[in-house]
Amino acid sequence: MRIVIPGGTGQVGTVLARTFHADGHEVVVLSRKSESRDWRVVSWNAKTLGPWADEIDGTDVVINLAGRNVNCRYTPENRRQIMDSRVDSTRVIGEAIAAASNPPKVWLQASTATIYGHRYDAPNDEITGIIGGSEPEAPDTWRFSIDVAKAWEKAANDAETPKTRKVLMRSAMTMSPDRDGIFDVLLGLVRKGLGGTSGDGKQYLSWIHEQDFIRSVNWLIEHDELSGAVNLASPCPMPNKDFMRILRDEWGTSIGLPAAEWMLAIGAVLMRTETELVLKSRRVVPTRMLESGFEFEFPHWEQAARDLCRRWRAGT
Q: Taking the model in full, what pTM does it have?
């Protein structure tokens, strides 16, 4: 296959591009940065049509991951960049597909499990899940993230691409041993003795092992019956307290200092990020993937954490 990955230079994009390339597929990454990779990297501005659009015409699959990193303080300027980078890039990808004489068979569009509401009582799936934004006493930063997710999906849904199947990938955090990824950050806290409970520890954390994420993407490419919103997450989300305890156990340390909400708030300012990333309860399950017959290799965090710790130590 020929696969074009706009915004494919981040952790998730690199995981996908690396795997597709190793499997013998032709991979083209669209990036605003000039980088040397084992696959082709083509320049684009993620906002307007240009010569890069020729890469879309005749390709088999588009996987759009473009968007500014959300691990930052939600200042007015950062908010604008986070929103615009997602909406503009999705809109122009839709325009390129619509203008193609030979459009791709499928367009996998990044979204986020953050679109669902903060809750403990029941899991959110694509059918009965509660879209967030109206939770009482929810911080403004939480509502902003949901507004971004809604606008992101709307930009994809508004695109007129009748010959191209569209899938909105509502992804949980993808766990891989790659340096500077989310697993690396969490493991770093554990290794420093800081990987204890965050807040009251009751908030759910949704995640997906990188191998299951890759397999999910391949499944979505191959299964024509799947379109619209699809959750990409392990079927077993778990409370923060248990999640971090298991990670400590698998790494081999019993020390993990807890962090109260006020401590997290101070730490977020110092680290120039937001507490939403650790305090919002993301209890997401992949009902549509499971009903389509997909089987997870790493459904449980214990086995996933064991594999990731082993590979992190080995540097792979």
A: 0.95
